[in-house]
Amino acid sequence: MELATKRFLLRDFTDADTSAFEAYHSDPRSKEFYGPEETKPEHTRELISIFKAWAIEQPRLNYQLAIIQRSGSRNLVGCCGLRRANAELGAAELGIELAPEYWGRHAYATEVMRALVEFGFDTLGLRVIFGGTVSANSRIGRLANAFGATVIPRQTPAWMSRKGWTQIEWRITKQQWENGHLTITGKRRQKAAR
C-alpha cells in the first residue's frame, strides 16, 4: 500500500522503520500528549507489529502508514492512518503524528492529511472521517479547522484531566470536505495547471 504526495511516500511499515519510530516516540515532546501506557518502549514495538498485521488483513480495514520523505535522506517523518475497524459503517478514524523535529514545518501535516482524506472519501468510499486529540494540541485543532471539520467535546481520560486538558473529537463529512477551503484551493490549482 502506497500513497504519494508531492514530498512524501505514505506506505506500509517495515521492520526497518522500528528504530526511527522508537526514537521519535522516546522524545519527551512526543510523550507529552500520550497516556502512561503509550510511552513505554515496548509499546512502540507492539504498534509496529499491529500495523504490519493490519496490512495483510483481508478485507483490510485499517491503514496505518509510515510517512517517508521522497527526496534526500528518505527519513521516517512520522505515521498516519485511517482506521475503520472500530468505526461505524462508512466512517474511519484519521490519525497523524509527526516526529517532533518536523512539527510546524512547511505544512507537512496538511499535505499528509489531504492525501488521507482524499483516499478515504474517493477510494474507500467513506462518508465521515473523524479524529481525536487533546485540547493542548493546538496544531491538530488548527489543522482540523482548516479542513472544515466540526469539533465535538468527548469524555476525557483521567490522565488528561489531571493536566487540565480535555479530549476533543473532530469530524468531517464528504460534503464538508468537498466544500472546504483546502479542497477548493487544490481544485483551483489543478484547473490552473491544465
TrEMBL record:
Please give the superkingdom of this protein's source.
Bacteria
Q: What's one Pfam family the UniProt record gives for this protein?
A: Acetyltransf_3
Q: Domain named N-acetyltransferase: which ranges?
A: 7-149
Instruction: Tell me the protein's name.
Output: GNAT family N-acetyltransferase
Q: Which PANTHER family match?
A: GNAT FAMILY, PUTATIVE (AFU_ORTHOLOGUE AFUA_3G00765)-RELATED-RELATED, N-ACETYLTRANSFERASE DOMAIN-CONTAINING PROTEIN
Instruction: List the InterPro entries.
Output: Acyl_CoA_acyltransferase (IPR016181), GNAT_dom (IPR000182), N-acetyltransferase (IPR051531)
